[in-house]
Design goal:
By secondary structure, this protein is an alpha/beta fold. The radius of gyration is 23 Å and the shape is globular. Strands 1, 5, 6, 7, 8, 9, 10, 11 and 12 form a nine-stranded mixed sheet that branches. Strands 2-4-3 form a three-stranded antiparallel sheet. The N terminus is likely disordered. Strand 3 and strand 4 form a beta hairpin. This is Secreted protein. It holds the Pfam family DUF1501. Keywords: Signal.
Length: 408
């Protein structure tokens, strides 16, 4: 008897095949979306201290508000352009900076002001709207992008990790995957899947990739496949898929972007640094740096050259260090951009200054541009969306302003 793919997926439940956690169970389209550019959005939850990440060492007031080592001193930041310096925990990104594959966008924020709630700030960041008043849109701006992206299918966009990622929530289909997903397949089920898919190379390849990513310990694969096949499949990408933390998420993102995927998002926690922030902030910045390097390594030079990565956070932190060695919830912050598609090696900012009269509420970095405008210009350059669509539908009510020239 010959089983169709539909019959196989229907009958698999009867043989104990738990496919619910698999990325391939969601209806799959193998029609590649138009264009070869990719966008990765990393949400930094907890309000990253952008002034610590990209330190304005060229500002005359910097050392008065943030005493500490300067570029060239032990433990000091790494000079970028004489005006700004990168936190030493992110020194691993300097090859990208020198290759003009990394930029910092400084003194930016969402329209959120004064209430300083992480929950509201993150809701507004991911919804991409000006406020959270009754009736405001709550779908995500990346999902609204997909709704204007011709040929978008189930695997065009991926939400990665256990976080709900509201930025991708909405009417357009999105595939979700978390490291905790486990196919729980028996060797017999894998054999049956192979038999069903053997005449459809594209579907068979996707199924094989899902098996080796989601089979947590590899036992089912080892029992079902020949030693030769097991070695070939495992060598391809199992090691990357089983890496730790954000590195594992980034490796999985890279795998999808090598196929039909064009958009992906995941989040990194750990940025709420109210006290003794030096060590936890260094760890968080190191994790972000490692994730970006893993993306570059996993994508390879060709796909990386058509990729932009944007890391953004819900709001900034206070300019001055507080009495417990940390920073409190602030306003203006910074975005980190990476990717071979960038016109990088620049700190993009209309810098407001750090003297007290120039601060927001005399305590925070003054935001001089809406971070949504930078995200919108990235989408316009990568995917060709027109300004009217971006201002009306993707970021309702946004004025894009002048093109900051973020892309090549």
């Amino acid at each position: 008897m010959t089983l169709s793919r539909r019959a196989f997926l229907t009958r698999s439940a009867l043989i104990g095949c738990s496919l619910a956690a698999s990325p391939v169970v969601t209806p799959v389209t193998f029609a590649a979306a138009p264009g070869d550019n990719r966008l990765v959005v990393i949400i930094l939850r907890g309000a990253m201290d952008g002034l610590a990440m990209a330190q304005p060492v060229g500002d005359a007031d910097w050392r008065a508000v943030r005493p500490g080592p300067v570029p060239g001193e032990a433990g000091g930041p790494v000079d970028l352009d004489g005006r700004f310096a990168l936190h030493p925990a992110m020194a691993g990104l300097m090859p990208l900076w020198r290759a003009r594959e990394m930029s910092v966008v400084h003194a930016v924020s969402t329209p959120y002001r004064d209430k300083r709630s992480h929950f509201d700030g993150q809701d507004l960041l991911e919804a991409g709207v000006a406020d959270l008043a009754s009736g405001a849109r709550r779908d995500g701006w990346l999902n609204r992008l997909l709704q204007h992206y011709p040929g978008s299918g189930t695997h065009t966009a991926w939400a990665i990790g256990a976080d709900p990622l509201a930025v991708l929530g909405g009417a357009a289909p999105v595939t979700r995957w978390a490291p905790e997903a486990d196919l729980a397949l028996s060797p017999q089920a894998i054999r049956l899947a192979e038999m069903v898919m053997q005449d459809d190379p594209a579907f068979a390849a996707a199924m094989a990739r899902a098996f080796r990513i989601a089979d947590g310990d590899g036992d089912a694969l080892a029992a079902a496949l020949s030693p030769e096949d097991m070695g070939r499949m495992m060598a391809e990408d199992m090691a990357a898929a089983r890496g730790p933390g954000e590195t594992r998420l980034a490796a999985f993102v890279a795998q999808q972007l090598q196929g039909p995927a064009r958009i992906a998002a995941f989040s990194i926690n750990g940025w709420d640094t109210h006290a003794a922030q030096d060590k936890p902030l260094s760890r968080a910045l190191g994790r972000l740096s490692d994730a970006i390097v893993a993306l570059k390594d996993g994508l390879g030079a060709d796909v990386w050259g058509r990729t932009a990565v944007v890391a953004m956070t819900e709001f900034g932190r206070t300019v001055r260090i507080n009495g417990t060695g940390g920073t409190d919830h602030g306003t203006g912050g910074a975005m980190l951009l990476a990717g071979g598609a960038l016109h990088g090696g620049r700190v993009v900012t209309d810098w407001p200054g750090l003297d007290e009269a120039s601060l927001y509420d005399r305590r925070d970095l003054m935001p001089t541009r809406d971070l949504r405008a930078h995200a919108a210009w990235l989408m316009r350059g990568l995917f060709g969306l027109d300004v009217a669509t971006l201002e009306r539908d993707v970021f309702p009510g946004l004025d894009l302003g002048a093109d900051p020239g973020l892309l090549l």
